[in-house]
Automatic annotation (TrEMBL):
GO molecular function, one term: serine-type endopeptidase inhibitor activity
Pfam families, per the entry: Serpin
Protein name: Serpin B6-like isoform X1
Ligase is among the record's keywords: no
Alphabetical list of SMART domains matching this protein: SERPIN (SM00093)
Organism ancestry: Eukaryota, Metazoa, Spiralia, Lophotrochozoa, Mollusca
Length: 463
C-alpha cells in the first residue's frame, strides 16, 4: 500500500474524580489530589481570552444581507453539521492560542478530539455546569439547540467516517469505577450517539489501573500513543474516565515523488538556517494569497479532508499570523475566512517532511480561559446526570491530550499517474507556474471541507 502520509494520532481523556470532602475517611487522598492538579495547572501558562461574540455579529450581518436581497439560498444557511463546525472552530482557535500564547516550538493539537470528548461529558452535566459547557463549546455561538447537540454529533461522526481511501478512526470509551450507579440515559446516549464502549474498571488494580487505559489508547491509536497516563494519575478517587481517540491515516491526492526530496534550507524560528529534507511537486493546488499569508490546500486521496498550509510571508511571522487570527475572531471566523475562496493554481511546491509528537498537554487552564470553570471545581460541579451519588460530588480532575503527526511522501508507484492527472486538470491558458517554498515556520490545519471541522492543527518551526 502506498502511504505517503502517515498521520496523526490523538488521545483525550477526562477523569471525573469523586469529591471526598464530605467523607472524612479519604481526606488525605483528596488533599494529595488537589495538590497534584494545582501543580499541573501551574506548569502551563495562562492567558486571558476575550469572549468571542463576533460570530453572532458576523452571522447576523450575513442573515441581514440575505434578507435584503430576498435571497434565502441554501448557501447562506449552515447545515446542522456545519454549525458543529463553527463550534469546533471556536474551540480550536481559542484553545490553541491559549495553549501557545506565543509559538516557539513544533506543535500538534486535535480540536475535534477535545470537542468530541467534551460533548460526551456535557451529557452528564446539569444546571450552570451544563450552561458553561454549552457556551464554551461554541454551541451557543453556532446556534446548535441544546436538545440537538448529541443528535447532530452522531450525524457528524457518521459522515466523517464515510471517507474512502482514508482511515479516520474515532474511538470513544468510558471506564467507570465498579459500583458507581450510572444513570441509564447517560450510558444509553453515549452508546447510541457516540458509539462509546462503556466498561467497568478496577481502580484498586494492583498492576496499576492506568495500564488498562493506556492499553486501550495504544490499540485505538495503532500503537502510536501508549503512555498517556502515568502511575498515580488514576487513583482511588477516580470515578470515571471518558476518552476519545482520533486516528487518521491518509495519502495525498497528489503524491510527492521521493526522488524529488532533497535537503533544502529552512529558516527556522530558533536556530537560524537549517537543512531539512524537503519534498517537491509540480501540480495544481487550491491556493490563495491573503495579504501576508499564502494558503495551500493539499487534498487527501478519496476524501474531502484536506491539509492546509498557512505560510506567513517572509516579512511577517507565525506569531503575527496567529495574533491576527485571534484579533479577527472578534468579527468573523478567521479559519473560515482564510481557508475559503482558494483558486486552483499550478505550483512548484516545496514542503519539509516533518514529524511532531506533543507532550501530554494539560488542557484545563485553556478550558478555564474558554469559560468552562465549574466543571473543575469540586464544590460547584454538577454532574448529576452521570450518576446518582448522594454525598459525593463528581468533578473533572484531568483533561489531557497527546498527539502525533508524521508527514512524508512514501509511495512512488503512482507518480506517473499523478502527472497525467495534472495535464488533464490544467487550464487552457494557465497562469505562469508559481513557486511556493515552505522554507520558514508555518501553521497547518487538517479539516473536513464539508463540515469545516478542524481535526488537527499545529505549527512547524524547524528541527
Ligand atoms: C442567492 O445567492 C447565491 C449565492 O450567493 C447565488 O448563487 C444565487 O444566484 C442567489 N439567488 C438569487 C435568487 O438571488
Ligand atoms: C437523554 O439525554 C438526551 C440528551 O441530553 C435528552 O435529549 C433526552 O431527553 C434524555 N432522555 C431521557 C429519557 O431523559
Ligand atoms: C509583505 O510582503 C508581501 C508580499 O510578499 C506584501 O504583500 C505585504 O504587503 C508585505 N507586508 C508588509 C507589512 O510589508
Amino acid at each position: 500500500m502506498n502511504v505517503n502520509l502517515i498521520l496523526v494520532v490523538v488521545v483525550f481523556l477526562v477523569s471525573l474524580a469523586v469529591n471526598v470532602l464530605t467523607e472524612s475517611a479519604d481526606a488525605g487522598d483528596e488533599h494529595e489530589l488537589s495538590m497534584a492538579s494545582q501543580h499541573d495547572i501551574n506548569r502551563y501558562r495562562r492567558m486571558g481570552i476575550r469572549r468571542n461574540r463576533g460570530w453572532d455579529r458576523d452571522r447576523n450581518n450575513r442573515n441581514k444581507q440575505g434578507k435584503k436581497k430576498g435571497n434565502n439560498s441554501k448557501k447562506q444557511r449552515l447545515s446542522p453539521e456545519e454549525r458543529i463546525g463553527v463550534a469546533n472552530n471556536h474551540v480550536a482557535l481559542n484553545v490553541f492560542t491559549s495553549l501557545y500564547p506565543s509559538i516557539n516550538s513544533n506543535t500538534i493539537f486535535s480540536p475535534h478530539s477535545l470537542h468530541t470528548a467534551l460533548a460526551m461529558t456535557m451529557l452528564g452535566a446539569k444546571k450552570d455546569t451544563k450552561k458553561e459547557f454549552y457556551s464554551s463549546l461554541g454551541f451557543k455561538t453556532a446556534k446548535v439547540g441544546r436538545s440537538e447537540v448529541h443528535g447532530i454529533y452522531n450525524k457528524l461522526l457518521s459522515s466523517l467516517s464515510r471517507q474512502q481511501d482514508v482511515t479516520l478512526y474515532n474511538a470513544n470509551s468510558v471506564f467507570v469505577k465498579f459500583g458507581l450507579p450510572l444513570k441509564t440515559n447517560f450510558s444509553r446516549v453515549l452508546t447510541t450517539h457516540y458509539h462509546a464502549k462503556v466498561d467497568n474498571f478496577n481502580m484498586a488494580d494492583p498492576e496499576g489501573p492506568e495500564r488498562s487505559i493506556n492499553a486501550w489508547v495504544a490499540k485505538a491509536t495503532r500503537g502510536m500513543i501508549s503512555d498517556i497516563l502515568k502511575k498515580g494519575d488514576v487513583n482511588i478517587n477516580t470515578a470515571m474516565i471518558i476518552m476519545n481517540a482520533v486516528y487518521l491515516k491518509a495519502s495525498w491526492a497528489d503524491q510527492f515523488e521521493p526522488w524529488n526530496t532533497e535537503p533544502k534550507p529552512f529558516y527556522s524560528l530558533n536556530s537560524g538556517v537549517q537543512t531539512i529534507s524537503t519534498m517537491n511537486i509540480l501540480t495544481i493546488y487550491n491556493y490563495a494569497n491573503h495579504h501576508d499569508t499564502e494558503v495551500i490546500e493539499l487534498g487527501f486521496k478519496g476524501s474531502e479532508l484536506a491539509m492546509y498550509i498557512l505560510l506567513p510571508s517572509a516579512n511577517s511571522s507565525l506569531n503575527k499570523l496567529l495574533q491576527e487570527m485571534k484579533a479577527r475572531s472578534a468579527v468573523a471566523n478567521p479559519m473560515d475566512v482564510l481557508l475559503t475562496g482558494l483558486k486552483s493554481r499550478k505550483l512548484d511546491f516545496f514542503l519539509p517532511k516533518f514529524k511532531i509528537e506533543s507532550d501530554v498537554m494539560d488542557l484545563i487552564p485553556a478550558l478555564k480561559n474558554l469559560g468552562l470553570k465549574k466543571a473543575f471545581d469540586a464544590s460547584q460541579a454538577d454532574f448529576k446526570d452521570i450518576a446518582n451519588t448522594d454525598k459525593q460530588r463528581l468533578y473533572i480532575d484531568k483533561v489531557v491530550q497527546k498527539a502525533v503527526i508524521n508527514v512524508n511522501e512514501f509511495g512512488c508507484e503512482a507518480a506517473a499517474e499523478t502527472f497525467v492527472g495534472i495535464m488533464v486538470g490544467s487550464q487552457m491558458f494557465p497562469p505562469p507556474i508559481l513557486e511556493v517554498k515552505v522554507d520558514r515556520p508555518f501553521l497547518y490545519i487538517i479539516r473536513s471541507k464539508a463540515q469545516k471541522v478542524v481535526l488537527f492543527m499545529g505549527t512547524f518551526v524547524g528541527v
